[in-house]
Structures are given as structure tokens and as C-alpha cells.
Description:
Layout: H1 2-21, H2 26-76, H3 79-114, H4 117-135, H5 141-146
Amino acid sequence: MLKSILSILLLLSILVPIHVSSQPSKSYKKDQKTRDKSRAGSESFANDQEAAAAVLKHYKQELTALDQERLDAEASGDIEKLAKVEQKIRQVKGQMRFTKNKIEEDIVKEYNKIQEKHVRKRMKKNKKKSKRINENKREPFFKRIFKKKRR
């Protein structure tokens, strides 16, 4: 009887600490959440980049078609048609540039969201420092040497 009670107590003393220690710590859970968030963010980040590439591809196809129209207008010698096509090309290029800048801003914004807080702070600090340094740069050496001096 005493042996069976001791064996039960020994068994319980072994099982109970294992059950308690099998639970992950709070910091581990927190780290796991941030990892999951960054993983999900990186997947959506990749999808956003693919969508952006498709939009830019559409603009390039449109420009290719307009280039063909321009060549046709040059061959026909119709100056008015040529001017209209060139204006349309400039308009499409402007829209493409605007869209491309917007996409790049969005990509940077999403990339910053994925980063952890301390990394975002470090990136911000480095960006400010590089901006400050670059604003105070001198003119390049060779430009200073070979610059024509006005008298």
C-alpha cells in the first residue's frame, strides 16, 4: 500500500512539472505573433508587387501601341495626327510616372509596416542622418577642378 502511494506521488511529481513547463512563455507567444504578422505581411507584399507590375505592364503596352501609331503618322506625313499622337504619348508617360511613384511609395510604406518597431526607429534615424549629411555635401572634386572660372 505504501509502495503504491509512493509510486503515485512519484509519478505525479514527474507529470505535473512537465505539464506546467510545456506551456510557452508570454514572450515566446509575442514573438510568434510578430513572426506570423511579418509572414502574412510579406505574402501580401509580394502580391502587391505583382499587381503593381501588371499595372506598369499595361502602360508599357499602351506606349508600344502609341509608338506604332506615331511611326504610321510619320510615314503618312500628317503633321496634325503626329502632334496628337505625341501629345497622347506624353500624357501616358506622365500617368505612368505618377503611378510608378505612387506604387513605390506604397511599397516603402508596406515594407516599413512589416519591420519591427526597433528596426523602424533605426531606419528612421539613419534616413534623417543621411539626409542631413547629403544636404551639406560639396560639389564633386572633378567638377570643382574642371569648372570654368568666370572673370
